[in-house]
Amino acid sequence: MSYFSDIYKGIKTLLTGMSVTGGYFIRARKGAITQQYPDNRETLKMFDRFRGEVVMPHDADNRHYCTGCQSCEIACPNGSIEIIWDRAVDPETGKKKKKIDKHIYHLSMCTMCGLCIEACPTDAIVWAPNFENSVYDRSALTKVLNQPGSSVLDGIED
Amino acid sequence: MNFTQMIIPLNITKTISDWIYSIMPETAASYTIMVIIAVAYLALFAVAGLYLVLLERKVAAWFQLRIGPNRVGPWGLLQTMADALKLVSKELTSTIKIDKFLYNLAPYFVIVSALMAMAVFPFSEQFQAFDINIGVFFLIAISSIGVIGILLAGWSSNNKYALIGAMRSGLQTISYELSVGLSILTMVLLTGTLQLSEIIEAQRTGGWLILQGHVPSIIAFMIFMVAGTAETNRAPFDLVEAESELGAGFHTEYSGMKFAYFFLAEFINMFIISSIAVVLFFGGWLSPFGITENIAWFPQVFWFLIKVLGLIFLMMWFRWTFPRLRVDQLLTLEWKYLLPLNLMNIVLMAIVIWLNWTI
Fold it and tell me: Is ipTM beyond 0.90?
């Protein structure tokens, strides 16, 4: 009698599916996942894992974690990151030390693969949730990530 | 055709018909009235079809946790009106190697057969354009004509996707026509008449037919809804216009208003299937337990439309829940499950009536 049990099972599974979507239907008024973007621009918050662009966080004293090791530049598959670096004399030890002059990030070439962020040994660069990336001039998409006059945080290389 | 059978709805239309009869000879007057009723139905169901499209889009959005159209007019109420205006104003494009005559004929075939079926439905006690004594038979016959339009559209388009879609439609409609017919026949066993107004009259005292016939009625209703969804070529039976396989199926080559006719016909067909189900199973315009039977001013149309909308919602629920069937699954469902069950169900219904087990 598997014929009738097949019918019973079929109806049962169909009703299970319908109860799932029926639940969605009832909850849709409150729990709609649609973001009405330009209207809720002030309150719209992107998700933690959202990949908008790569940024370099700075602390209050205008210091960052980037040692200029160039791991990100090597890791980037399409050359979105260029680091212009320099050597400067450390006033404490008197030794020459590598430091970044400009950490250049071409957002226009970036595919948001995240390999640079995985490669960074000091977590100097992170994802930012900014998604309004349209500009009128493409040169505006080439960004210098370290702020002017910033320096690396002491002891970060160790 | 007997013109006296035509029941003119409501008092205001009676005044109009009296006035037309007073200024014209009798034959001309009856033809004029027929044309007026046809135009009124056409306008009514074109607008109703548009709002069914809007309802579908809203319901679809809610099933998928979205919001749906909400920009054009309050709550998006004018959205489909704007879409229709857009489609009217669009250029009608076609390919060179089409069969011109059939290509242009096909959409009218589909929409006219859909609108013709509307004529026999009793929306209320008086509101029925054409009350024939073979109403149910007429409905089954008319609803099968639409598929010719679809076949014509696919054939004349000279496009392999359109042709495959049209052939699938023929296959599907011919198969499921059996189930629709047999499940309706099960209910006709119970009422003993094919006239829609008398079918409803039979439910006034004894309760809705789905209760009167209990088990076989419920089985018949389930089979009817499955087969009816297949008849209208809607998901999960939308092999005819399976977007992922066939582009748009039989209406791939259509654009503008001709495309809109196919689109509108799908929704009017959905309305028809729901209306048949309401008349045969849920008492048509009768109120539940007769709660508004003694209130003279209460429109009986209200109950009819509420029930129809409920069943349309059920079909939309199917559409936005179930995945599409393969062709072999479609035929297995019909020939191995629905048809044998239906035949058993007819015997069961006959036994129930023979032994007087109806409620």
Answer: no
